[in-house]
User: Fold this.
Amino acid sequence: MPDELGFQVINSPLFLIMEVFKIRQQFSRPVIGNLEQELISRLESQAGSVSVGAKIAVAVGSRGIQNLSTIVHVVIRYLKQKGALPFIIPAMGSHGGATVEGQAALLGDYRITEAAMECPIRSDMDVITLPQDGLETPIYMDRLAFDSDGVVLINRIKAHTDFQGSHESGLVKMSVIGLGKEKQAFEIHRHGIRGLKEFVPQAARKILSSGKIL
Assistant:
């Protein structure tokens, strides 16, 4: 018989039986057994790029990376053993409130301090302008990085959350927006996805051609 809303009510039992199972999917995850040994092995393949007395800027970003402080410390020790003079710079665009103090504090949150890393940390928002050469956006680089004898980038490589492209969120982006500080972050992001997808790789080629990135 119809109910008060006009729906037909059928007075016959209906049973829906559901079985629920737990499922666990295992993804292949390469594991590094000895992190320090692996890092040194990778660095040795680039040993020719480091000379005695070279002032090397070790660029560290604001991304959460497992064992980041260990990685940075191993890189610093390695560069010292090669006779270089390493120092750490924040490479995080406008993060940390786009201030010297804020970016240094972000590094501190990851236990990256002068005492722990046994080297100076130089946080500066000053940038130099690289030749634009027809690109639609200016290209900036951290002045301390540009004035150094070479830059080591430490970052993770991951998919971007907003777009798909040849280069998404990794070392290429860090070399542009990370090292370009607040000025570069603004110039890229004001173009939206196009800035990230098209302009970042274009700018990265210019930055790599400077010869500063080791």
